[in-house]
């Protein structure tokens, strides 16, 4: 799992502010998605297809001029599906303090290739892996439910 990580650092600019004078959440989501897609692509070695976004948490607002670090990691994969988690933290340059501001989960598929299995190596990675497995299993339940509802509608 640790070999699937990617990181990016972004200086938050004033053109991305919302009406409250903080960084617009949609901008943060776009940056997280771009990093997640890049992480999935470098892991799979083929172009991934975005399937779903799940559990986006906005824990703290992000100030203009702050330095944000986006960390991504493939936390779970199964056959052609992978879950990528992206977390964002703000760094205070004066003190070096870091605070988590956001977390995102994205699901990608690579239908033309079977993905290599990843395995957790620490307790934290195991907890992330289990969260990813739950998200994949929940997605399967939703798909089955949607298929059965569609069949009822057609008949």
Give a description of the structure:
- There is one protein chain.
- This protein is an alpha+beta fold.
- The protein has helices at residues 25-44, 123-154; strands at residues 6-11, 49-58, 67-78, 81-91, 98-109.
- The chain has a single domain (2-154), classed as Thiol Ester Dehydrase, Chain A (Roll), CATH 3.10.129.10.
- It contains 2 helices and 5 strands; from the N terminus they run βαββββα.
- Strands 1-3-4-5-2 form a 5-stranded antiparallel sheet.
- A hairpin with a 2-residue loop joins β3 (67-78) and β4 (81-91).
- The chain is globular, with a radius of gyration of 17 Å.
Highest CATH level, the class: Alpha Beta
Superfamily (CATH H level) name? Hotdog Thioesterase
Strands of the biggest beta sheet: in what spatial order? Answer: 1-3-4-5-2
- Using only C-alpha atoms, the radius of gyration works out to 17 Å
Q: Approximately how much beta-strand content do the residues carry?
A: 25-35%
> What's the total helix number?
2
How would you sum up the global shape? globular
| Helix and strand composition category | alpha+beta
Can you tag this structure with a few keywords?
155 residues, Thiol Ester Dehydrase, Chain A, 5-stranded antiparallel beta sheet, 2 helices
Task: Summarize the SSE layout with pairings.
Elements: E1 6-11, H1 25-44, E2 49-58, E3 67-78, E4 81-91, E5 98-109, H2 123-154
Antiparallel strand pairs: 1-3, 2-5, 3-4, 4-5
């Amino acid at each position: 799992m640790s070999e699937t990580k990617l990181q990016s650092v972004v200086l938050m600019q004033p053109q991305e502010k919302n009406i409250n004078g903080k960084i617009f959440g949609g901008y943060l989501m776009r940056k997280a998605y771009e990093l997640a897609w890049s992480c999935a692509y470098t892991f799979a070695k083929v172009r991934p297809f975005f399937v779903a976004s799940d559990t986006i948490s906005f824990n703290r607002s992000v100030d203009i001029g702050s330095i944000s670090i986006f960390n991504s990691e493939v936390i779970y994969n199964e056959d052609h599906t992978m879950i990528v988690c992206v977390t964002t933290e703000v760094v205070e340059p004066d003190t070096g303090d870091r605070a988590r501001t956001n977390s995102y989960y994205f699901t990608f598929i690579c239908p033309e290739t079977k993905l290599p299995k990843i395995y957790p190596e620490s307790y934290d990675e195991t907890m992330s892996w289990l969260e990813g497995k739950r998200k994949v299993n929940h997605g399967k339940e939703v798909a089955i439910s949607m298929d059965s509802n569609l069949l009822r509608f057609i008949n």
